[in-house]
Design the sequence.
């Protein structure tokens, strides 16, 4: 239970940090947040998954991040999340895929 709460708070922090400021988004990316976030796309914890897929959506505008998301295998996880029972997860997954596929 404690680990779940810590994961929820950590992913919420990252989600909020990457929400608006482009410089902070790139700092988070350069600090290595993407690979663990891609791994968390397989989480069964609703809040962790919501925060993680929103973070990936937030980061998916930058060309370098798009390439890394493809390399790290995020596409198949995001496509799978389109079938989530959670509308918020579906929305963020669809938006992240749109961002990744859009030309920069």
Sequence:
């Amino acid at each position: 239970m404690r680990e779940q709460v810590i994961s929820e708070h950590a992913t919420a922090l990252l989600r909020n940090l990457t929400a608006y400021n482009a410089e902070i988004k790139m700092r988070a990316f350069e600090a290595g947040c993407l690979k663990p976030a891609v791994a968390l796309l397989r989480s069964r914890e609703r809040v962790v998954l919501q925060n993680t897929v929103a973070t990936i959506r937030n980061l998916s505008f930058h060309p370098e991040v798009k390439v890394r998301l493809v390399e790290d295998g995020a596409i198949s996880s995001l496509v799978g999340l389109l079938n989530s029972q959670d509308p918020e997860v579906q929305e963020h997954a669809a938006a992240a895929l749109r961002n990744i596929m859009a030309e920069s």
In short: The chain has a mean pLDDT of 94. The chain has one domain: 2-101. The chain is about 75% helix and 0% strand. The helical segments are 2-17, 22-30, 34-40, 46-59, 63-71, 74-81, 87-101.
